[in-house]
Amino acid sequence: MQRGLDSETKKQLEEEEKKIISEEHWYLDLPELKEKESFIIEEQSFLLCEDLLYGRMSFRGFNPEVEKLMLQMNSKNKREEVKDEAVELDVSDEEMARRYETLVGTIGKKFARKRDHANYEEDENGDIKPSKAKKMFLKPQD
Amino acid sequence: MAPVMAEAASVAAESLGGGRARAARTVLDQVVLPGEELLLPEQEDADVPGGAGEKLLRLNAGARSRVRVVCGPGLRRCGDRLLVTKCGRLRYKEPGSGSGGGVYWVDSQQKRYVPVKGDHVIGIVTAKSGDIFKIDIGGSEPASLSYLAFEGATKRNRPNVQVGDLIYGQFVVANKDMEPEMVCIDSCGRANGMGVIGQDGLLFKVTLGLIRKLLAPDCEIIQEVGKLYPLEIVFGMNGRIWVKAKTIQQTLILANVLEACEHMTSDQRKQIFARLAES
Fold first, then answer.
1. What is the rounded CA–CA span in Å between residue A54 and residue B234?
2. What ipTM describes this predicted complex?
């Protein structure tokens, strides 16, 4: 009868059931196999062995795209690319900053209405003067 | 060459007959034959009986740091040693930066290409079946190339590839159990010069060793060839070279020069280039 069972006897029954189940499990009766750490790696590719150049080549301007690729791919192997890129800047940073400064004024002038054109008067040097405060409506005094 | 080979063969035969494995370090740049076992630098000292005292000291001093050695083409791992599987000269490359051990390989010569993952090859499209192209790369079976493996290709925007076109691509799958697979883009999705090779030009076959020799960073042949006239060359690691110049005659001269330069000495080569430069 299940009703009269104590918690202790219940536990014992459970343990016995678990034992029976685990004994029925199959297992391999082998000694522990040690994993052999291999210090030799097998590779079948020649890319690791020899530094080979890129396979497409073009000489004396026959195919300009391939010549660009040649520079790119071969310098990737040698990692000299960073130096070359720094030298090849077309426009220096200072010039860019100057241009942007004046650009804001000229584009702004395009979208300003006729009355606001006064704010964009040019100096003798051609630089845009800082804009003055907007003129508000002055209530006439009595 | 004959007396050198005979000497090398006799030395190799001795070691094979004697059953002693030679140290890889002592055999660098010498001819090795298939079946030889080579010892790596760490194991040489262990085999010498006189060095027992040294060996003990080293073990007590701490863990013997075993570096990972890479065995390249022509070599196989056999326990702790290297087993030679191709005949040729044994080469070694120092470890570059950090990755320890270095690379050993055998510089052998062969005409038959076996697909290797990562190799750039020139293939000829032989068939178009559904979504894949069958490409002949000179190996035991044709490689497959999916039409989506081109830069900017989508299901609607198919690449313009016809049967008989030349393709420059690289392998993504290449082992002895599966059919080789090629792609014409790199891992970032950019073409990097791969894809269909343009019109005209001439495709011819050379040995695999010549391709590696021509692609070496300090190859004089390529530098001299580049000074002759404007031209374009594509090298495939499967022994195929495609050349193109402005006229057919120039293309043919170039093809002949590249085929013949394998067996010429550097003096003969310079003579030929001088003659070509004159004409």
1. 9
2. 0.75
